[in-house]
Design goal:
6 helices; mainly alpha
Length: 142
């Protein structure tokens, strides 16, 4: 009996594995996607508290809004794998935007872009396995 208990602690029952994966398939429950929404809103509204010019402001508004909208889409449709891949791309675009759009001299805007973009990239990459699992699980239900 003691050996059975030790084996259960090391190797979870299949139903326990399904229960652990279940939140990844429910809409509006994934923390990675909520983080993406918050990061997108912060990036989009950051022109309110950091110095920007017109180009910088619109770059951050557009990329931030796209990040937030894609996060909302991923929350509503948790099996949508390409949504997480798009988050990775949008996060990378936000990271490189200070150099590409020429606002590295604006410290607040640059730091916001680098931090929000890097965190978006990480959240999207971390959510990819969850989205793949949810997609596979939902595909098996058809």
């Amino acid at each position: 009996m003691a050996g059975d208990e030790a084996a259960k602690r090391r190797f979870p029952d299949f139903s326990e594995v399904i229960a652990m994966a279940e939140p990844a398939t429910r809409a509006w429950t994934r923390p990675h996607d909520w983080a993406e929404v918050v990061l997108g809103v912060v990036a989009a509204l950051s022109f309110l508290w950091v110095d920007t010019d017109n180009t910088t402001m619109w770059t951050m508004i557009v990329l931030g809004a796209l990040i937030a909208l894609d996060g909302l889409l991923s929350l509503a449709l948790p099996g949508l794998v390409y949504g997480e891949g798009l988050q990775v791309v949008l996060g990378a675009l936000l990271v490189i935007s200070p150099w590409v759009m020429g606002y590295t001299a604006m410290t607040g805007a640059s730091l916001t872009s680098w931090i929000a973009g890097g965190l978006t990239l990480l959240a999207g990459a971390a959510a990819l396995p969850l989205a793949n699992a949810a997609h596979g699980r939902m595909a098996g239900q058809h």
